[in-house]
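Lab meeting minutes (informal)
Scribe: AK
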Amino acid sequence: MLIVLDEGGKGEAAKLTEVRHAQREGWAVLLPDLRAPASLRHRNSRWLTAAWMLDRDLLNQRVWDTIRCVDFLSDRYSSAQQIDKGRIAVWGTGALGLVALLAAAMDRRVAGVVARDLQTLEELMSSEEAISPMLFKHNMLESFDLPELADYISPRMAMLAIDDDEVGSALANCGPRRRRDCGDGRDHPRADPHGGDRRNATAMPVPAGFRTAARDRGRGPSVEPHGTIVPTINELGFEPDDITLVLTHPDADHCGGTASLRAAYPGLKVVAHAADSPPLGSPTDTIAQRYETFARTDDMRLDSSALARIAGRLGAGFEVDERITDERWFSHQQTRSAIVHIPGHSHGHLGIWMPDERALIAGDAVMGYGIRNLDGSLLYPPQFLSRSTYEATLDRIAGLNVDILLCAHEAPMYGADVAAFIKDSRDAIGVLEANVTAALNSGAETLTDVCQAVHENYPGLPPNRAADLAPSVAAILQDLHANGTVQITTADGLRRFHFERSKDVR
């Protein structure tokens, strides 16, 4: 999403080359009218003078207007599906370039900023006679100039004084990554739960032998030389022998290709939770425990093509070097971080918690209403192995007061969006339980039949994906069995679920 600021207001902004270029490249563009556009300001200098005299200078008010635009975009959708909130950029021309830079400096939801036709603040103040000095704070140049402001915004992208030939590259540097090239000659959509995503790989520095920790891996092709992770590690200049790979859980899109990454970096150290390893490290065990969980008890099996596809995504086996059972805290350059246990989606699901930034890399520990496609439609529902454990993890994450939530298949979430996503996750459990209860009341007995009935009533699921519900439906049924509401029997080799007669729910 690109917010474009121009002295002439939205009418003049709509004529800019960068706006047309951005739209051709697939950007959504917001053209706001900030307070006192050029046409109004030159006719009403008294208003401008009054604003300055009251210590409410126009610059501050315009920065506030821009941040309110970011608020509007961030609050518009509860789960950040239609707008990638992690890719909001601000583009300013002339004096509005300073506004864009200040807004980015004050609001970290802004992922990138461009101040076009602007290199230094002194240049802006002295070269444009039409620009009133009352736009600016008194003695501003004694505090900073634009290069210092750009450094403050780092590591987010900030570009100054670009020309027409650089418009395309500037947009690309902070643009929406809707599709990605894995080096296999094909494009892959953003929400490919089995194929991985650029966001599935996170590099962070930690000390004491863990100079670099890469969280999760993704699918095999993205660790090849023309893929994602290896070029990123090389570009960042990390020492290959000091890299630790923290695997969150044993799904193909989070552990597949680990063997290929180890081949690229022989000194790689692989860390996982003991509750997930095994099956982590063994493709055969991973398929049996994560993808064929209900084959023996409920005859819910994958077909041969699905099994072959998953095996290919998992890649070769690998050794887990360290199986942790407790949390690990680190500090690096006065920044603290921890490998934390946040189970539910898997028994040993791990995440990375950075309390100073209040940021949590959560993998699939929180899933909202489910994993979504790029257009916002559901791909599959939330999946958890234990309802109580999943709810406890939601409680824990809510208690951490997370300000930045990084999930594997979602755009980054900030502030109120984090709380909204956790609420979505809780609500989804309630919807699933209500539909499980309705399925049992309608006569469904086997796990397959209950999943099919729930699939028909869970809002937004695509057709022919009832089996994706099996982990969560089975967890809810087990929870109802534990509290005495549901009886589990076996007939013809299949588990069957019935309400206890005295506890029928109607």
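Next up, CB showed the second protein from the same session:
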Amino acid sequence: MTVKGKAEPVSVYALTSSKRHASRGRAMHELPMVGRWAELGIFAAKLDEALVGRGQIIGVSAEAGMGKSRLVAESARTAGQRGLVVAVGECQSYGTNTGYFVWREIWSTLFRLDRGLPEHEQVQALEAELAAIDPALVPRAPLLAGLLDLPLPDNALTAQFDAKLRKASLEGLLTRCLEARAAEAPLVLVLEDCHWLDPLSRDLLEVLGRALAGLRVLLVLAYRPASGVGGGFGIERLPHFFEIPLAELDDAQAAQLIRSKLAQILGADSEPPAALVKLVTARAQGNPFYMEELLSFIRSQDVDLQSESALARLQLPESLNSLVLSRIDMLGESPRRTLKVASVVGRVFRASTLIGVYSELGGLDEVKEHLQALGTVDIVNLEQEAEQSYLFKHIVTQEVAYESMPFAFRSMLHERVGAYIEATEPDAIERNLDLLAHHYWYSENLPKKRKYLGRAGDAAQASYANSAAIDYFERLAPITEQGARVEVLLKLGKVLELVGNWPRAEQVDGEAMAIAENFADEHALASCETALAEVARKQGRYDEAFERLDRAARKFRKLDEESGVGRVLHLVGTVAAQRGDYAKAVDNYEASLRIRESAGDKASMGSLLSNLGIVAEYSGEFERSRGLHERALALRTEIGDRWAIGNSTNCLGLVAVLSMLLNREVGDTWMVAICHNNLGNATRGLGDYEAARNHYADSLRAYLAYDDRWALAFLLEDIAILAALCQDAPAALELLGAADALREAIGAPRAPSLVKEIDGQLAAAGVGLADAERQEDRAHGHSLETGAALEHAMAFCERTSTDRATTS
């Protein structure tokens, strides 16, 4: 028909359905499933296991184009037909540092959020969902801000959380919500393109992967092959994990796929010519996407498919990438340029964004025509008509289009994308920091590159996304002017120290020290000495730590920086306490406390009083210890720091149950583990050895996720005392030997009061054991690796009364 604004008549189509809510899988996978019946059978079996409460994890591993997404989509469709809730998330190549990126859509589905609503209504809906699961979770809702990309400002509770606690609390919250959702209905969670998984998403995957073992949940991951089984996501050793490596299609399956593709592009369902099947299968080597692209290419050559000689004369590209590039090169100039701009924006993009980034493409109608042309040749698909949102049919096409551009043009486009985000979403800069850092990193705009790498690094550090923070600061440091580089290096060193990469932390802090010396910057030198002292302390090099802290204190005093002096004295006290020099620890803690009191720093005052209480306990001054902890508790209550309140009440021991509730409220699994340890000690003292075993076992389970060898040494000693009280001298001596090894490794001797208690208990339990047997048992425990020692302790704790009666 003829329409206004068009010189020629246009075709008219009837609307048969809307893609506004079409799934990405439906838009991408229009051909019927070919082969993979054995793999689908595995999915069905694992789904049956999950339906009866034995949660399963399936990893689908294959190179690009092998059909990972097709298989996963078919399995998810089948699960949906059986009435299961299916939630899907996709990683993106630019999202490798964007925290929880792949989980955003999954949890939007599980929290039943309507993304079309205004953000304040989504927040209200989220809080209602949390309240329905457990009203105690609502105060922790702000922790979901980054994951769900919603404006959820901190409240009085979450504002007190440090980065580590925020992460642990969020993971605990999501575990609780997953349990609740799985209790309502069985779930299938799909994570696509996990080779681009960001570090926080990986950690959450491991946490939820462990938790779902007893839930009605099937978790499906798709990823390209890694160096080992499981993609390197930390789940490969879980007993409920199973990997499916996809093999190439065989000749019969290849022929079936060729028949389906020819029916799609030619409109006739007939037996494909044998020569064509032979040509395509030989070149594609069983890769389904390669086959489809070859057929599209061959069709574009106007060759007679029935002519074996004509097919033999075809000059086919040598690889999948060169084939895709050939198809792109055959496009008209305007569609080809539109495709390349889109490849910089991302796998999913809007037509309006392309115009905003590169106005040279023309107006909206022109760009839509270009995209329609790309859809006609099966390169992009329309995802959501209402928003004019499109996606690349296959990630390989996006990658090839991106790599085909000259570096200068690509860099220019990245800068334009960054500027477009800044201009169109000025109120969402903080939420787009990772995306802005990505685009400006690949641009030539050095000031913006520095700005957003720094801001993204700070944000990652604040959210305990340590791997991402390290990546940002590592990239930022070399491009920062030397005068400002010390600060960046110290930030990098702090994160490296936190994750236990002490050699690299020491190297980075040393680089900062060299720059500070070159600039004769006394403040920077003092900060570098302090940082290097912390690294030395954590490696048990206490003498070096003391020397560095002494130099740092003298520099801070020379600069009249009382806050720096206070921090150094605090650290000197900690080093002294770990060496067993309690008098020196007290002197330095009290000197630091006086500085913090004069500054009105109540949070640090509470921390110092708590440390003084612990030292008093080690020295056997129990009444003094109690008084110090009560003062710390009063200060922490005054400022409303609920995590610290839980810490103080835990130290007091008198209100251990209250401490457990508080730490569960904020979701701190590490502190809950300490609470279980203390409750184990309390029930052991009351003679309830069965309860003590249970508390110690709970503490061990939580500690398995942490590498706090100092705390583990105490726990092993506490379990050793319980073993002695249960008249199991060999177990007691082996656990004590394991604790000996831990303390020697970190250079932390036992307090005299603890030595006296342990010796007394072992003397009573070891009646009848020869000295040689005692030494042999303790030496065996000393020889155990940490993991084996913890397994040994867990085995003792989990032995039932019947087991003990049988072995006695």
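CB comment: Residues 1-28, 654-661, 801-808 have pLDDT under 50 and may be disordered.
No objections, moving on.
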